[in-house]
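Supplementary Text 2. Reproducibility record for the structural model of the 231-residue chain.

All settings were left at their defaults, and a single model was retained for analysis rather than an ensemble. We include the record here because the model underlies the residue-level annotations in Supplementary Table 4.
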Amino acid sequence: MIFLAVLLLAIGKVMFGTWLADFPSPFFVFVSFAITAAFFLALSRRGAGEKAWGPLLLLNASTALTFLSFFHALKLIEPAIVGAVEIGIGPILAVGLSAMLTGERPSALRLVICAGVLAGCAILGLAALRGSGFASFGRDAWLGLAASVAAGVGAVLITVASKTLLDRGWKFGAVLAHRFYLILPISLVMTWGTDLGGIEWSGHLIAMLAIVSVLGVLAPLYLLQIGIGRC
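Retained model, structure tokens:
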């Protein structure tokens, strides 16, 4: 499930960068997550376990951090660089955070796997950097890199918060339904500084927006939540 979710996220990156390159990323985040939130609220109105305000707040904050940073980074640097940074730092951060929370030292095998993932992503990222002329991009390139790191950190925190809620009796559908309370108003506020009037609406644009929202956001989130619940 997690592999399929990552695959769909990668496809979503390409589709967003190809079909919606001129579409304001905060507005895309608002539209796509409004669709996703409506879907899961209709599908899973019940299923919340015991009250857990801390993990729920962390889940909402990390969701906003991850996806707002992620789609902003895609506007600034190559999708391959964004993916390499986010995926590369994720396992290392997860292992480090787990060690801090549990006090248990990670196994040598786990460290080797994390190092391998980081090395592989570093190679991919370096290749993309050389091919994209990263050094000549200036400030935007470094902002994109910072946003990619923020997205990676947020993704790890999402996993921690989701796992905590599931352990407290929450159904995975309920976790999905209650994680968008921050990202929707924040992304809506961020659209105020964009040129929404310049968007040339058409049937083709609406169709592309719906396809990318479903394949690049809704479906990966659903599959990731199932995968986290089975870990």
